[in-house]
Amino acid sequence: MPIDRRTFLKRTSAATIGFAGGPYFHFPKKSYRLALIGCGWWGNNILREAIMEGSSQVVGLCDVDEEALKSTSKMIDGMATDKPVYFKDFRECIEKSQPEIVIVATPDHWHALPAIDAIKNGAHVYLEKPIGHTINEGKAILRAARSEERIVQVGTHRRVSPHNISGMEFLRSGKVGEIVSVKAFVNYNSPPGKASSPGQPPEHLDWDYWVGPAPDQPFLPQIHPRGFRQFLDFANGTVGDWGIHWFDQILWWTEERYPKTVYSTGGRFVKEDSSDAPDTQYATFEFETFTLYWEHKLCNPNSNESHNVGCYFYGTEGTFHMGWLDGWTFYPAKKGEEVIHVEPTLHDPDKQNIRELWADFLKSVQNKQYPVSDVLHGHLATNMSLLAMISYKLGRSVRWDGQTESFRNDNEANKLLSRPYRPPWIYPV
Description:
Elements: H1 5-14, E1 32-37, H2 41-53, E2 56-62, H3 66-77, E3 85-87, H4 90-97, E4 101-104, H5 112-120, E5 124-127, H6 135-148, E6 152-154, H7 162-172, E7 179-187, H8 207-211, H9 237-241, H10 243-253, E8 261-267, E9 280-286, E10 291-297, E11 309-315, E12 318-322, E13 328-332, E14 340-342, H11 354-367, H12 375-394, E15 398-401, E16 406-407, H13 411-414
Parallel strand pairs: 1-2, 1-4, 2-3, 4-5, 5-6, 7-10
Antiparallel strand pairs: 7-11, 8-9, 8-15, 9-10, 11-12, 12-13, 13-14, 15-16
Helix pairs in contact: 2-11, 5-6, 6-12, 10-12
């Protein structure tokens, strides 16, 4: 669903939606029927904050891994008196538990179908990033959210991190000067690992359902529960996992919504395990007014840089680093001027700001307004990651038309906007 910059800015500045007032919207402020689809590590992080906030009754838990369901149930027992019903099939969960809010925290290849089903059944959705495995999945989620007038908050919680907010204000103040170049990067040491052999899935896991619409393949212990991000049938590697957070920060800063051209290269130079995502990847995104560079590699940060993750904004008055665990820092260009630094405010476990993002989500539902991490923001940031992967797979640059969300005169690239789904699953439109 293409949208021009003027319309986007008008919508997001007004931050209101003309809801028709569907049957699931008029519920009491402190009585949200909530279902979680995807009871893994991050799904539990989100659910924990939702329970602590106190406005939700957990009515449904859904996962194809019985051990994950048990773990989430145990967590709930220690926090609330809710007695949710357990499900393996997300469709049954949504139909029978009738949630007003659904958290979708599945692996990436399972984001689109549950999110769209929840939306079409009247629920508002907290959707983990990236919003889809392919670009056309994101378009389908956005179309469903807008046509059904549902709130969809994407889990890019750095939009509400205090230091990211103050850092964005600093960037927009002009103190960094004219910014013509930005670099987003993730550089961490990692062991090479070793290949694992296919085997029988554990009895508590329905592997066929876990694979779902992805290509059929045998179970690998390295994939489930948390290794899937480095397998391209299920996710899009580091640029798809980490990249969306930093691309979202950059799109938050600029008025531009998409790049014109993208070129990405890289390979597997460190990893010796069974994954297939690049362990080293570089990408160049050409915008109208600046150039963005992406970098991830499995080694120490560059010796002349003191940060291993985040974004560098290179300005005429200095260099600004937007970070995560290390807050933000401005390095003035003029000698003798003081370095400015702001520490982060993050929550455990896992150093996040889900609490603030969940509060914004509920406020948006109650006030019928776009959330701070609206599905459109999530779609545009996810597209950045997926554009890099499409270029990487093709081995060449691509020209992107952000208005039509297609590649210019490039049938080969346009075929990668979606992928065939394994029957009986049907690709969303």
